[in-house]
Amino acid sequence: MGQPVASRGQAATPTVGKAMLNKYARAFFTRVLTPFAAFLIRRGVSPDTVTLVGTAGVVAGALVFYPRGEFFWGTVVITLFVFSDLVDGNMARQLGRSSRWGAFLDSTLDRVADGAIFGGFALWYAGGGDDELLCAVSIFCLASGQVVSYTKARGESIGLPVAVNGLVERAERLVISLVAAGLAGLHDFGVPGIQYLLPIALWIVAVGSLVTLVQRVVTVRRESAEAEAAAGQETQGSEAAK
To answer: Which pTM was predicted?
Structure first.
């Protein structure tokens, strides 16, 4: 699966807090996972294979366990496969094969994995969880997460920097949701009241994703206006020089 922490593509410039967190988290996991990545390379495993297997594991964990309300074990399985993204990026760096294709594959499969996770929540609340409102919130989290990613990709495709991270990005969405789901699953082991963490987390992600979407749309609108104004000034300057 793609990153909650790192990827083979380029990321937007993070805030200071996120930059520090990413710096130390990435350094830690690089030290821990480098030997395993090197082992896979010696075995002839490619980074793309790790990406595909990781995504398949996340999708299976989300769609097999979550619709049945088995949040603890589902989160355990998903978390194990989430680290595949750190491994494939590490392998790509060791091989010197960081590429546009690798970044594209990571980003594409990120969307698949995210859809499976929030789709699993929606299936639970549409079935055994018996809560239409939370089902709708889960679907909103799924859709808004895809659109938030699309706004950045689309803005960059038309030549804009989209220089904003937003309140709740993909890493935050996944950490909040997975931690809450894993803890909520402890209700099956007799921990009282903890099952309410997941609904709270879904509402936080939904509201945060909406705010992030607005932030990115506003940023693209501003950058677009600035780019068009700059282009107009260049055109006027060229005409004046003739």
So the answer is: 0.84
